[in-house]
Each structure stands twice: as structure tokens, then as C-alpha cells.
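Sample A.
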Amino acid sequence: MHNQVHLSALFQLGPDRGAAITVPVMPRIMFQRSPTSFLDDVYLGVRGSFGVRNASWAPYLAGTDARPDDLVIPLPDGFQGAIVRDEFQAMVGVDPAKGFVIRRPIPKAGNANGWCLTA
């Protein structure tokens, strides 16, 4: 799917039988959001939580192994600023020209919490 390799969980074949496994084929990185907007004088403000989840059995790093890259969650053109909660600032930053930048690999599927950001 989209030139991505999809892996199953580890399994071992027995000498007397095969194995039945499930290989989920879906986007590897999934975003979820819960925004709330409000007007403040001349600005439209948006606040909410954004989650990023890795549906794979291996950590996700944007780019390639030879050339890793930051994962960018773009914000609309002309956005005036964004804030990341204190407990997530080591993992996520804000690029004034692009939006949120995730600086670390996204953990494998076992981590259901994702990262929550506020814009």
C-alpha cells in the first residue's frame, strides 16, 4: 500500500502445521484530532488535541534509514503561532514556516496514547 512494506507479528511454524496470521494493511501513520475554534478580536483561534499513531510493529521514522527526516504536521498557511504542552516539548516542536515537527521515531503499535499537541 503506497509502496510501504507491511509486516505481521512474529510467528513460528510448527513441524506438523502451518500458521494463520493477520497482516493489517492500512496507512502506517494515522492522525487523530479534536479541535475547538473560537474568535478572539481579529484572530480565529483553534485549540485541541492531535494524536499520532503508528499502526506498524516497528517504530516509524520519517524519511529513509540513510537519511532520516522529521515528521511534519502542517498547519494552515499564515498561522500565527502554536504551542506544545510542556510534557511533549522534548518530542515535538513548532516550525514557524511549517507547523508541528515530531523529532523522534513514533513508537510501534503497542503505544496507544500517541502525542497530544495544542495549536
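Sample B.
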Amino acid sequence: MKIRTWDNQYIDLPLPDTYGAQKNIVALPGLIDPHVHFRIPGTEEKEDWKTGSKAAIAGGYTSVFDMPNNTPPCINKTTLQEKTTLIERMLDEVHSPLAFKLWIGATKENIEKIPELKKDIIGIKVFMGASTGTLLMDNPEMQKALFKMAGEHNIVIGTHAEDEEELKKGKEKYPETTDVHDHSKIRDRNAAIKAVSHAITLAKKYHTKLYLLHVSTAEEVALIRQAKNDGITVYAEVTPHHLFLSEKDYDTLGTKAQMNPPLRTEEDQKALWQEILDGTIDTIGTDHAPHTLEQKALPYGQAPSGVPGIETALSLMIDAYNKGTITLERIVDIMHTNSTKIFSYIPKETWIIVDLDLIKTVRDQDMYTKCGWSPFAGRELKGWPLGVVINNIYYPSHT
């Protein structure tokens, strides 16, 4: 069947005959998510690659890059191989066509060994401030050594850029709080701004390819814009939750809106959108980080940070397209094309089939992710993926 592509070409794809009667169907290239946490190994109650891959396909993603903060963390050849074997087995068991690459975590002990694994990883994940898991590299000298090594070997560094010293100061200000609204104060914007500025300085000094994960403030993107203008090789990622949620959503979502870095102001949201449109922001990374409803129901201080997002990211962006906020071309750039360039990643030819007119409400019970909920539940969105085509086989988003 001939289907129109986002750039007004036509291609033949093996689709159900019923699609021929639907007028506003469009094909986009399969999405790439450079930032997921599918929780294997160690916390299978939250997610695994059987449920995670189904959630990814349902959301229009055909490639994902998984983060290393597992139990045990993915930090060397042994843990990398063991994790890869687990993932491949799970994908085989459900006959999933999802493609994947893995980040390796930076530690004080593994810097010299990482170059040996260059061909096996998509990049190095650096936690400049503590988040979920045990990985943390806040020692300035170790950070310098890491950026120097990555620059010499042309390996991407992906930074969780929150300054650990600033995070500790925030915790000291609110030592006993159980109010989730304080999360954005404890991990305040200064922690992110300071860490981003420091990472950019290191990238400039050591000629490192720097990928800044989940930027969330107007000041961060201003620093990134200036760095790009100065010729520094720096890239910026933004998440759907920072684009479509703000601090006001704590009122209704409680700890379901708790993530690191935390939600920011509506003014920050506007700045992120502006930088998407002008090209400063390069990618959408879902930071799909599921936790169970039971874990999220714990009081603030005990509830873990992180939200699921891989199933709803494209529909949120297509809804924004339908509202005139963004073009389909720009969506393809930030959800597919730019990741291929930044990470020198060559995916198989895959396609998402999107009904631009389909209106549905996000519902927890429709989610394939094992955690079974979405922070966007209750939102009516216009524009949903119907399925993906991989290896000339059509996989419906929902069955």
C-alpha cells in the first residue's frame, strides 16, 4: 500500500487494507530513544525488556539506548556482556524486533578500561550528581580524566548534570520534608546550571563530544546555545515530562511527578520549546524510568524519582503539531535524525504509521509498560501511532 511520508513522498508498505480508507495517515522513520531505563538487571518488578520493548513499539520507537544504573551497574566488559545476554534472551522470548544499544556507567575505577569497549557501547553515562542507583562521579579530578579519555577516543559522554555539592545544600535546607513540592527546591535550578557550565568547560578543554541529558531550565539552554556558537561539540536533550509538565503538576500528581532533574516553571517550559524550534535542543529522550504504583505511593523522601514516558512521547508531540506548535519535519529531526548523527548510529530502515487525526485519551490501563501508569493519564491527544514496519513486517501498536 502506498503511504505518504512526513516529507510528502510516497512509499509502499505492507499495511492492513483498512488503512487505505483513512485519509490522514503518514509514515515517519522509526523513532530512536537515546535515554531509557528498562531496569534489567536488578529491578524487574518495575520493567523488563519484554514489557519495555512492547511499550516502545506501541509508542513508535524502533531503537532504544539503555542506561547503566542497574543492579549491578553496567560498568565493565563482564556486566556489559551479561546485560546484553539478558536483553537478547528476553527480546527473543517475545519475538520483539526492537533494536538496542547500551550506555556504560563511569566510575572512578573504570576510566582506563572504557576505550576497549568503544565498539560495544553507545556512550559513557556520567552522574555528576546522585540520582537513581549507585553511580556517581563528583570528583573534579576524575571528571577531568574521564573527559580527557573520551575526547581522545571520540566517545560520547552523556551527563546527568546536577552538581552534587548543590544537591547536598538543598537537602540540608529541607532535612525532614515530606512535601513533594520541595523536590524542585532541594534539587534547584542552580544545581543544574552549575553542572552544565562545568561540563561544557570540560568539553571545551578536552574536545569531548558532550551530550547533556534532560536539560530543564532556561539558563541551561542559554549556556548550551552559547557553547554551540563558540564551536564546542555539545548536544542537548529534553524530556517529554519537562516539555508537558511543570511544578504546578505536583498539586495533582504528587510523587508521580517526582523525577531528577525535577519539574521546573512554565517559563522554563516556554524556553525549552523555543530552543527546540530554533535548533539549540537536538533530541527528545524520554528518560523512561518506571517505578511501581506502590513505590510511587510512598511519602516524599521514600518514593523514588522517575516516570514512564516511552508510550506517550510521540503522541504528545503529534498533538503539539496538530496545535501548530511544531512541524513534522522538526519532530523527525529531534526524535530520529539527530540521534543517528550524534551517536553515529545507523538503524535499519523502519517506519511508524501515524494517524494524525486519531483522538484518544491516555489511560493507565492501556499502558504496556510493566509499571502500568502514565503521568499523562487523562489527557486527550490528537495523533497516535498505529504501528511500526520493521524488516517489512507490520507490528500494530495495540492489539
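B remarks: The chain has a mean pLDDT of 95. The chain has one domain: 2-396.
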